[in-house]
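## tool: complex_structure
## caller: assistant
## args:
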Amino acid sequence: MSTIAIRSSFADETECARAIEELRAAGVGDFNTFSPIPSHKIEHAIGRPKSPVRWLVLAGGIAGVLTGLAITIGTTYEWRLNAGGKPLLSWPPFIVICFEMMVLLGGIFGFLGVLQLSGVPTTATAPGYDARFGEDRFGIVVRCDEEQAAGVESMLKESGAEEVSRCS
Amino acid sequence: MSANLHPVHRERAAKKPRAVESVAGTTMRTVAGAMIAIGVSAFGLALLRGEAAIAWEAYLVNLLFFLGIAQGAVAASAAFYLTQAKWGGSTPYRLAEAFAPFLWVGFFLFFGLYFGRSLIFPWVTHPIAQKAAWLNTPFLFARDGIGLGAMALASFAFIRVSRGDAARAWAIATDEIELPPHSIRVLAPLVGVLFAAVYSLIAFDLVMSLAPVWRSTLFGWYFFAGCFLSGLAAMALTAAVLRGRLGENNLFTNPTVMHDFGKMVFAFSVFWIYLLFAQYIVIWYGDLPVETFFVVQRVHHMPWSPLSVACLVLIWMIPFTALMSVRAKKTPVILGTVAGLSLAGMWLERYVLVVPSLSLDAIPFGATQFLISIGFIGAFLISAVPGLNRVAQAATSGEPVGDEAE
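## result:
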């Protein structure tokens, strides 16, 4: 029993998402999807759990607020300046610094998290990739057993695939 | 072409809602009419008993609040056209326009303020020489009257086209119709620009002029952003309430649509606190007595300080924390409750903006003000009856929305 790869291309985002839903309903779980655009429909169809990046952003945000507090409170105590008789530790301007630091560190953590978790930058392309999947076509590459192949191929064609071919 | 549909879509297409023609009728009109009668009697009684000041304060607060909802919601409909929103088919447009008849009620009630002017506007009895060219009775009623009249005319011209077949066809179209009708593309920006201009003017004239020495340039913007938020909150609350009353598979049972209502309440609640803080920080830094007193009276002065905190909690803190997760936005009970609290907060905010300028040392809220507010709720509901029936028809028409329409 050998596994083979079947490559299919779609012109339409919705049809690609439908094909993914059908593949999953049929229990063919081992496939890769390529999309030239970020697509919510395909994301929903794949049904992957939520990305852990959001926890990194949360951590970055909290770290940012703490950094902001450290900067504002620290510098205020370092340079005790009486401004217009206001209390030394006045929260209104501190909020601005803490907010900006939260956005900054949250953003940086999120960006680095995406790089780390998605494994980019990399020079290797995923198996079955075709240059058109970076231009105007959506692609699904299914890996399955040889005896399943015919069924998968007809399923893909019925869902509206333009081309279905076997690749190594 | 149902044979070509994916099973999921075929299943959904089979679940057509049962068309509902009417959701509000005689009962609602009767109850609302009784509420109006209660409000009018309470107002009359207060005038007879010499509590005119209290009655006029309640009148102004409620006028600002309900006019803000009605106009803010129409502005939301215009904003949907400008952003080419198709996430709910034609129903969000009908929902946003449902409260519009109150614009005319509010227009006429505004002129009622003429009879209470000496009790509401401090500059009527104590004119300020330097500002007399702007703050005088004939000019104020003329400019605000023209503003509100133009606003109502533009809104109704807009709504007329928006309810037409061409606009509806665009809202529920798949890809064939590129843009909404031309008249909408003229009227929607007009409604948006007029809304910003007229409601800034209303904020300056009917709120800021009650403390005639105070000024904040951003105040107009802050005020109409609050109106916009209250319009959106009223829409979300109505959607959550109608969901259970329109039978199975009505549009509001679609979690994606409720998610979108939730996103808007969340976003504009954050926008509201942003504008509030933007004013606060500038006044705090400048530390000019002529600017700070307005904030100090409301934030640091009893009995107002807890009410100001309550506004922050109701309008920003609760929506921000409760609506943060997707699941909460998609749960109508949570969304409806948060929207309701947000509306209560907006009413309180109008109260805290207006009343301390007139009665600083005590909260004059009592039976009179409560019953007058009931009267305004009645007037608002009775104006919304035909609009709500249109919402019911649109939400149960089974028109394709969102993913299905694409």
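## assistant note: Residues 255-286 of chain B form the longest helix (32 residues). Residues 1-10 of chain B have pLDDT under 50 and may be disordered. Handing back to user.
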